[in-house]
Q: What sequence folds into this?
């Protein structure tokens, strides 16, 4: 019974660690690496508030961070 309780507690702690909100700058860098891997020559990634992101086309929002209070908006620049 003690092992079962310990397993439940460990599982709950592991789940909460995985569900931790992601830092916006960390997520922006991860997205930037993926974009550069696709050889996009010129682009802009901007961290904006959720309200500001709602004004953009939903296809431009490439990620959310800080518990959904901010979003990362992608725009391909024409060169």
A:
């Amino acid at each position: 019974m003690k092992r079962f309780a310990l397993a439940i507690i460990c599982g709950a702690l592991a789940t909460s660690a995985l569900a931790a909100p992601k830092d916006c700058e960390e997520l922006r860098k991860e997205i930037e690496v993926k974009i550069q891997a696709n050889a996009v020559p010129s682009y802009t990634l901007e961290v904006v508030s959720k309200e500001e992101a709602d004004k953009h086309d939903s296809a431009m929002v490439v990620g959310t961070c800080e518990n959904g209070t901010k979003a990362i908006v992608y725009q391909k620049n024409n060169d």
Q: What stands out?
A: The chain has a mean pLDDT of 83. The two ends are 65 Å apart (CA to CA). Residues 12 and 49 are 31 Å apart (CA to CA). The chain has three helices and three strands.
